[in-house]
Design brief:
alpha+beta, Arc Repressor Mutant, subunit A, Beta-Lactamase, 2 domains, 3-stranded antiparallel β-sheet, 10 helices, about 45% helix, GAF-like_dom_sf, DNA-binding, WH_DNA-bd_sf, transcription regulation
Amino acid sequence: MGEGSVVQSECRRPQQLLENPAPTNAASRTLALLSAFDGSRSVFGVSELASRASMPKSTAHRLLGVLIDHGYVKRDGNRYRLGEHVFELGSRALRPRGLREQAVPFMAELHHATLETVHLAILHDREVLYLEKVFGHRAPPCPTTVGGRNPAHCTALGKAILSRSAPETVEHVVAHGLARRTPHTTTHPDLLRRNLSLARDEGVAVDLEECRMGLACVAAPIVDRRTGEALAALSISAPIARFDKRRLAARLGKVADVLSRACS
């Protein structure tokens, strides 16, 4: 739950450039250019892409032409966006196979029963990656997008997955710092570990305005029964004023259990 911030993304960019020096070969430059299409926006100008990818504008323009020829990028006037071929490849990369297809009917049922926003996500490094989102007309501002990401430590989805992940996965998240997104974000490692332990015991994790003010979320892990570790997580988000953890968790837990059996 929550939203990626364009401002935050841009503020991080100088540090990212220090940590990731300019690529030195054609393949690396091309991948860096593709990676520049991140954040909550979908279209960029060549100058901005060149800056994000740490390369000359002329190089970016030339590589964009190659990517357009191969269907990875499309041009809209003097701006660029990712092409459908990227989506095709990304869909094939999802693991476990069929998770999204199996989850969507249950997500639709959860939305119909609660009239709240339902998300499906996996853990991608230290963030949750949204695979699907179901919402309706009365949904509050929750500009998450399929293919978008948010920090794992301040989302119910992330905490649900981490609660059933290997200790080294949790420590990897902690080691890179727990950035504050709102006044309610958990930023102390020991408190996060206690919250994850509680989430494991209860079977659900909660985010009370930790990622976005005014929104609350409850999430349950989808677990590989063979290993005991989370494959993904399912969540229900609602405005804090009408958030009912017990009611939402009861419905969510049943669906997560069914999907855990189906995916194992």
